[in-house]
Amino acid sequence: MNESEVSITPRIAHKLNKWGEPERDRSTTGNHVISENAAFVPQSVIKLDFDPKTLSESDFYLYERIDQFVNELLVNFHRKMQEEMLAMAKEENSPFSHRLALKMRRKKYDLPKISILHGNESAQSFLAANPKVNNSYASRLNHRFLVVFNLPDPLMKFWRQGGEKESGARMAVPVSEGEIEWGKFYRRVMPEVHKTINLYEAPKGPLQISKLNGAGVHTKQFYYVWSMDFPKQDEDEEEYY
Predict the structure, then answer these.
(1) Environment class of residue 164 by beta-carbon count within 10 Å: exposed (0-12), middle (13-18) or buried (19+)?
(2) pLDDT at 18 > cutoff 90
(3) What is the CA radius of gyration of the chain?
(4) Which of 139, 155, 151 is nearest to 210 (CA)?
(5) Phi, psi (degrees; rounded to nearest 5) at 146
(6) pLDDT digit string (tens) for 179-221?
(7) Residue 42 forms beta bridges with which residues?
(8) What secondary structure letter does DSSP report for 180?
(9) Considering the entire predicted model, what is its pTM?
(10) What are the boundaries of each domain within the chain?
(11) Residue 218 to residues 36, 53, 100, 214, Cα–Cα distance (Å)
(12) How far is CA 182 from CA 23, 40, 84, 176, 222, in A?
């Protein structure tokens, strides 16, 4: 099936409104239409390689959990990026301006890129095309869903640039005067990703989340690759779906 793009859901649009986004009208199809300032509203797309309507009842139930995780991750990431962009633009003599912040929003550089792949065949095809993540552990799993997470382009390219005073900045490099500390964004935003994972990950959360790429293994195609399934304690529950 051809890759499809799913607009940000009404649930997320509602949360974004709380952070100062323009009010949005919602259509009967579940997507939303932006009433004003459309160019400045971040509209992420979550790429799917399947049609949710074609999923089995069990897989659809699992997909609903994954969709909730992905949407919350999206909102938390966006909120923190907006906070940091505003704070950096307010700094005296900052190379990061309000104009650049607006440009980033237009280009959706304040949002991560997320793809959801369904089925072991799709997962193995992705792993074969990305040998840096195709380790023996990943190859042994029977993947029901694969979630591929990547950073916005500026963070993906320049995550080491600056932010050496931040926590976890072992690989940071200093920037010259007038250069933007993209590493500061990176090191302040990524904890939001980890918090969301911890919230949804078994045994306390509703998902079995297996990270397939090793520590420090990131490419232009992915930052994280997760295989997702029901938690082991849900195996009996799964029989009913």
Answers:
(1) middle
(2) no
(3) 19
(4) 139
(5) -120, 130
(6) 888 888 888 899 999 999 999 999 999 999 999 998 888 899 9
(7) none
(8) -
(9) 0.76
(10) 4-238
(11) 37, 32, 26, 8
(12) 30, 21, 11, 12, 18
